[in-house]
Amino acid sequence: MTDLRVVGTVADLPTTTFGHRSLMWWGTLGFIVIEGSTLLICAVSYFYLRKNFLSWPPERVLRPALTAATVQAALMLLSNVPMMRVDKAARRLDLRAVRTGMIVVSLLALVMCAVRALEFKALDVRWDSNAYGSAAWAVLTTHTTLLLLETVETVVFTVLLFSPKLEERDFSAASDNAIYWYFMTLSWIPLAAIVFLLPYLI
Question: By C-alpha distance, which of 145, 150, 143 is closest to 181?
Answer without folding.
Answer: 150
